[in-house]
Input
Amino acid sequence: MKFTAEQIAGILEGEVVGNPNAEVFKLAKIEEGTEGALTFLANPKYINHIYTTNATVTIVNKSFEPEQEIQTTLIKVEDAYKAFSTLLEYYNQVKLMKSGIEQPSAISEGVTYGDDLYLGSFSYVGKNVTIGNNVKIYPNSFIGDNVVIGDNTILFAGVRIYSETVIGNNCTIHSGSIIGSDGFGFAPQEDGTYKKVPQIGNVIIEDNVEIGSCTTIDRATLGSTVIRKGVKLDNQIQIAHNVEIGENTVIASQTGVAGSTKIGKNCQIGGQVGIVGHITIGDNVRIQAQSGIGKSLKDNEAVQGSPAFGYADFAKSFVHFKNLPKIVADLENLKKNNN
Output
């Protein structure tokens, strides 16, 4: 799709300096701009590129005044970075503006759905599912029985939503994620085998949650696994049965959270963190990457290490650890001198 500089300026409430009819159909970095591209200049470090870029249109701050001749058409706005972000959101909305039910797909009995549903081909919707307005379900997706999906939610291709799951408004679940699979529950038997414990709970995902690709959230044994509003989960994360994650917490890739652990609000958890089950992590906690959490943490703690301990203590200890060979050599020298 193509947009003129004048159309873009209208969206951003900006001013065109140059050709208002200049057309763009792609986005690019300013140093990689080519004909037909839209770019932006916000960081002064890149200012030299505006004089050499081949991008057709460039978004700049109102304060920018060129010191030499430029070829690109300018759109002047209050904040170029925020304006470009706004434009990306708008572009994404336009790109995802699909509706209709593609074939082949299957919709079971008792399903209700709102306006502007998009259901991609080779998708399956189970019995008694409730789907809100403007929901986008991309091809090869599975929606189990009795699932509820709120307004403006997007399920990208290949998502699997098991039965009884509840998903709120304005959520995004990326390709390959599985929501509502069985929790890892097995009871040891006298003969050394394990008997599966039925997992009869569900998963509840509140509003404005984003879940990355290939992330798994297990259903509760009893009750619900709960992802509170505003949570952001990266790719390849494992959330076990009966876990609760508080509002606006963010978790990076390859983290695993064991069963029945409660994580507070506004936490920041780095990649490859391992968290044991049945503990409580307070609000505003920061956990550095590759940490192992084996006990509960209080509000506002910052930890690192495996097992994790205070971040400041870890940093000090690591300095000594790096110098350990020298420290050992010094000790050996002291022993020799004392002898």
Notes: DSSP finds four helices and 40 strands in the chain. The chain has two domains: 3-95, 100-314.
